[in-house]
Amino acid sequence: MTHFGMISGPQIFIIVSIIFFGFLPSLIALIDILRNKFEGNNKIIWVLVVLFFHFIGAILYFVIGRKQRIKAAIS
Predict the structure, then answer these.
(1) Four-point Cα dihedral 21, 36, 39, 43, nearest 10
(2) Up-side HSE of residue 29: CA atoms within 13 Å toward CB?
(3) Mind listing the pLDDT tens digit for each residue in 1-28?
(4) Residue 4: what pLDDT?
(5) Which of 17, 47, 53, 56 reaches 20 to 30 Å from 33, CA-CA?
(6) pLDDT digits over 24-42, tens only?
(7) What is the mean pLDDT of residues 47-55?
């Protein structure tokens, strides 16, 4: 008799992998945002975009937001 509610080992691995790789870009984007300087309220806006839109927000940040960072002056 098969129980459709039961999850086996390989299925758990797949689910955990999807969750991990789904949150990894968001985590990397948040770390990058918090470590760099932005003009005005751009930092707060990007943090909110990544937090509310997770994977899509992280992709948007990597495509658009990284260009908005303030470059550190080399002295």
Answers:
(1) 40
(2) 29
(3) 456 667 777 888 888 888 888 889 999 9
(4) 60
(5) 17
(6) 999 999 999 999 888 889 9
(7) 93
Say which amino acid occupies 56. I
Q: Which helix (H) or strand (E) holds 53?
A: helix 42-63
CA-CA distance, 70 to 73, in Å (whole number)? 9
Helix (H) or strand (E) holding 55: helix 42-63
Residues in the chain: 75
The C-alpha atoms of residue 16 and residue 10 are separated, in whole angstroms, by: 10
Which DSSP string do the residues of 5-51 spell out, in sequence order?
T---HHHHHHHHHHHHHHHHHHHHHHHHHHHS-BSTTHHHHHHHHHH
